[in-house]
Amino acid sequence: MLTDVLVFIFGTTAFVSVTRLLGKWLTARKRPAELDGGPMETRLARIEQIVETTALEVERISEAQRFVTRLLAERAGAVALPRSSDRSVTPH
User: How many Å is the Cα radius of gyration of the chain?
Assistant: First the structure.
């Protein structure tokens, strides 16, 4: 009776392990085909485009912020901040 239970437990464990290994092996064989112009490449291209667009928008926001800061400084009679072309390189 005890041996039947142990055989069942070990048999089930072995079956599940082999099934998982077979699934991983089959999935690993399909991956290189996906990378050659497949959905992964398309997603990476979209991510690159989004990053470039975000960088451009951040630059526009920073230019607008410098412009508004300069206007407010001139309006208050303070010394205007240096223009973006006069910027110095910071140590960080």
Answer: 31
